[in-house]
Design a protein that fits this description.
Chain lengths: 347, 347, 347, 347
């Protein structure tokens, strides 16, 4: 059940918390402070977000990624609306229908071979605007980096947000791996979100070294008006909020977010380099962040999984997903490649 | 905004994490384990729950109390149902309508001067059973200890669960302060839940020394069948689950749950003793657990709050609520009573 | 099961359709017209509503009263809101939790001995505004005439709407028997709705001689923006809309609405006069419209029901409800009073 | 806005009510009967359904097709479930997201060029069963006849229901045009529903000559247990139920359902015959029922619509939809074909 190796390649959320994150939690564990976010730790963390994303940025801490997504989507929809996203989007594939339950909306999904969606795919969906028989598109949700490990360039995002805004729609970004995307692009967090027209962002922490906690970052301040009620009613208001706040404050200080993401990305590139020329192994997606999608001989997959667990991405095509993490080491990769080669040799 | 004293009396969730809880978290922070609960820490914690509550007990960890309540209530209702509870219940008063949103149900609330409900109040509500014009009662939710700091005796619970089961209803217990109740009664956790007919329990951790995390404990195993889907869709599935699991394992080991709860209760009794004879001060509820409800001269409330923050419970009647915690000290109480006397003297 | 008398006193919806309504339906049954309301019958009916309620009035036809109420309430709420109403309100008591399911909101109910609510009851509920732990009141719903057969005077409505608007809330009127109320007051339909600040009205037709169909009448035009989507998603968009439209056009023409309502009201007063001095019979509410609430000796109720069915309103207090209808005749009343006397004599 | 011809080809719900249906309504309009279905008309209609569909069939009348579908789907799902259907399904395309709002479920849609789905498309979706990250498929919904005017053969339905039942799923049939399908197949209503494993059926009336009203027909009696509560909470319980009941009783008597459906089907075949050899006109789907899908030269569409309104089905491919109805005459077709030829000649 549990991988016996120290750092596997199953998921970046199989790792623990980064030591600096743990230190911050320990330091925050003293005395009483008001619960539910009315405390100095939370206030300080919110200021840090304003430093990074600019004046007027509003931040709401939540527990997890699904939570961040569903509160964000509620803020920009009514139940008769439709949310446009990639078929591969986490909100469509991996949240057990939470977006539908919380918003009442229909998800209009677009096929995507690389996890990204394009304006030309969105456009044909809008002929139903104004027709009461159809759920009305009012939001586009994109994932940065995508579930397939690819990254939107800023101008690609800008094209989507411009089109969306021109048609009265808002744009949500699922940034579960936003830090990995920024590291990959060599750009700042603000440059690939607020500056290119994103209205509301699920800012991921857990996959980048936090123990728990995500942040909803709001750039369109109108959306902040009722947000605290949405968060509370959606069970995403933490009582001992300070313990999420100090993690984010630490992540955004001294560029820890970048250091962690960059390291994870580099480990993925290293792994890619080590395997790309191995016969029988095919990397099927651009390795932009800390994810590899790899086609393997079908029979070795279970044997490899047994020694170092990971997930099969596409059963039919025999494609697996390998994730690196902030704590992946070169030794982890060396050992894993050795395993891979051993099993390949046995075919 | 923030109380300047080390341990205030605003709420038991204004405290941090107990040192033993923090130690357990630190110890769990190594290497990779599978996310979402398929890890040895979670398995071990689940076994601990079976030790405490008996064979067959099913446990699902969640993030917080509102989360525990809404997933529990979903497990025992359909949207056309009604949930019977006290008007003062947390699910009715303090969750921003989360139960209605998640379940679609109506809450049928019963007046209660002490936070408890009685069978004779529930009975008249059942004449609508079978009549399609009315939301159909199918669940009773009781809080132990209640929001007014009182405690149900086991036979009182048994009376409710027997009646409910006889009428095809299930019983949920909101046990945000279940440990304080058990400590107060001098009974085991199982004796006031499973043994007296509770079907599903929100087991509170955060208010008794955890950093975050609650547990849904299921005694009617039929309810466990779909529970993991309900938890996930309700945004309450933690990825790095081990960090909740080890907290609960620690809480249930060496009777830490009892030690914490007993201490908090004792501190409340100490505070009660110190103030009960002060003129102008009136304790309005039985001090069974770590909560005091106190009627004060209206004008001193804001002055006292300024020096040591707490919540007004009933504006109209000038009643405030003081909570003690696992970390409340005798010095905290001494200092607080001194403050109180100072302000009373100034009236 | 079925009453053997021609016109019973069980409910005004036990009657059929008024002959003029039936004639209009028959006349509309020719040729093809576009479905879903884009037809000349519907356009004409909408104009008629503007004549009655004034320029800018927006009308949306729906199937039934619960439908009218839930689409109206959706238009003025978000799921984190609370709706304030009387405990006796149809939306609270008689719609199987439909308002909760459709809106996700909590209903905050006010006790009322006569079915009306007062500003002084609403006021104390507003101290929770802005506090994220509590569902946020944003709407008041009043019933005209009330479920207890009483009628708000225009100045009573104005007091509620003024207070509500001053506090950022909107006011919905459940007008299932709005015509009976207007007839009772001797006022026009506009005078007791739009002119006294109602934002959105469920205009009842079925209880006043229609075969089926109710209308949502919107005075705050902002609420009309998305209304057609809400109606459609809520299953309340009729395909052969003309058949609802012509009924309403007929009802509003030549004051048929008033004639029907006035007659029903008169029949109730006649019945009241006939029984008010009978020993053992006590009329417990003001007889403002077509409803009587009557306390009877407990033992005669089932015997009387067997010969002419009606509903028990309050089992505990032995109070029954008798409704007259547009088609109730003096002979019906004479026969019913005779029955009543016969059974009273047998006690 | 409104077609000037007596019987257009826009939709079968642009027609009025069949004369026999109208007569039945008129005849039912006398005296009082208990509301909400506890009346002899409704009882008699329910018996008629048992005659047609066999002993134990349970029937619940509702207002319209969307209503029938959403109550049916609620009866067979929980919010964490997924409903499998064709992309072209009415529940997916034409109900403004009502299924998502009412059930909370995700719709898993399958591409289909003819409106039908096949077992081999459903099978791959089931690998997610048991995995809490994904909405759990528990229901298949098929439309008979499909939205593209095609008809499932009984063995095709049987294949789907067998597979579904083998995997713990239930099968809903959207039978908005079930009568047209039966007429087309030359089979009885029972033979293409209950006998081939359908669990719950939306039985369409409005498109086959009713004024308003659909019926939910339940074959799996377990689903009937709570159905009346679902119907009521979903706003689909009619007060003057007799007026829906007598329409259905009439439709099922003397094979009026078959007569109407057969006629509409024949008119479609006649129209098809008249146009199939016209250059520039291409019939794109099998004409099994009363629907034609026709590819036309783009420029004539608006001109033709102006004289006789109909809907464009696929803007991109220049395909329109023409529906015939129970009241379409040979003269209507003659006139329409003449119009078509006139506009084609002008190209």
């Amino acid at each position: 059940m549990v991988s016996t190796d120290r750092h596997g390649f199953a998921s970046d959320n199989n790792s623990g918390a980064h030591p600096k994150i743990m230190d911050a939690i320990i330091k925050a564990n003293q005395g009483h402070v008001i619960a539910y976010g009315d405390d100095p730790y939370t206030q300080s963390a919110c200021k840090k977000f304003e430093e990074v994303f600019g004046k007027g940025t509003q931040v709401y801490f939540v527990y997890n990624g699904t939570g961040a997504n569903v509160v964000s989507l509620q803020a920009i929809t009514s139940s008769f609306n439709a949310i446009i996203c990639a078929q591969t989007a986490h909100i469509n594939e991996d949240e057990c229908g939470a977006p539908e339950k919380f918003t009442g909306c229909k998800l209009l999904t677009l096929p995507s071979s690389d996890g990204k969606i394009r304006v030309k795919q969105v456009e044909p969906l809008l002929h139903i605007l104004g027709n009461e028989h159809h759920a009305q598109p009012c939001a586009v949700s994109i994932t940065q980096a995508t579930e397939l490990g690819t990254v939107y360039r800023p101008e690609e995002i800008k094209a989507i947000t411009t089109f969306a805004h021109d048609h009265g729609m808002r744009v949500h970004m699922d940034g579960a791996r936003i830090c990995n995307a920024a590291a990959s692009l060599g750009l700042g967090l603000r440059e690939i979100t607020r500056d290119v027209g994103i209205d509301i962002l699920s800012f991921g922490g857990t996959k980048n070294g936090l123990m728990f906690g995500e942040a909803v970052v709001i750039f369109d301040t109108e959306l902040a008006r009722d947000f605290k009620f949405i968060r509370k009613q959606s069970t995403q208001l933490a009582s001992k909020m300070r313990f999420i706040a100090v993690q984010f404050e630490t992540l955004l200080s001294d560029e820890l977010w970048l250091e962690n993401a960059r390291h994870a990305n580099e480990m993925a590139r290293l792994l890619a380099n080590e395997i790309k020329d191995i016969p029988g192994v095919e990397i099927t997606q651009s390795v932009d962040i800390n994810a590899l999608f790899v086609k393997l001989p079908r029979e070795i997959i279970p044997r490899l999984q047994e020694e170092s667990f990971f997930y099969v991405w596409d059963e039919g095509q025999s494609i697996v997903r390998w994730m690196t993490s902030f704590d992946t080491t070169e030794e982890d990769i060396e050992a894993f490649v050795k395993l891979l080669k051993k099993h390949l040799a046995s075919v």
